Amino acid sequence: MFLSKESKENNWAADAFLNLRLPKAGKEVKLGAIALRLNKRADKDIIEFLKANPEDGLERIKDALILDIHIVGESEGEPAQFDF
User: Fold this and answer.
1) Does residue 14 contact residue 36 with C-beta atoms inside 8 Å?
2) What is the DSSP string of 14-71?
3) b/e burial code for range 50-66 (CB count within 10 A of at least 16 → b)
4) How confident is the model at residue 2 (pLDDT cuts 50, 70, 90)?
5) Is there a contact between 46 and 36 (Cβ–Cβ < 8 Å)?
6) How many CB atoms sit inside 10 A of residue 18's CB?
7) Is the pLDDT of residue 60 over 60?
8) Which long-range contacts does 55-62 make (Cβ < 8 Å, 24+ apart)?
9) CB-side exposure of 22: number of CA atoms within 13 Å?
10) What is the CA radius of gyration of the chain?
11) Where are the domains of the chain?
């Protein structure tokens, strides 16, 4: 999680980010980031939870995540070989 200093000046800016990465060939590939804002109640609760639980907070959130996928179109080329 990364806390942004600029967010205090811009209420649209994120206050923290949850980064999504996958292992690939001994490195990590960033899939994206989830922007969290203190002016959104659920986001604020997540930020405060992670601040209060720095040791296992991310692990607990990861275990509770529900992932799904919506594929819009077919991809082309060779599939990526991820380490999972």
Assistant:
1) yes
2) -SEEEEEEEEETTEEEEEEEEEE-TTSHHHHHHHHHHHH-TTTHHHHHHHH-------
3) beeeeeebeeeeeeeee
4) low
5) yes
6) 20
7) yes
8) 58/1, 61/18
9) 8
10) 16
11) 2-57
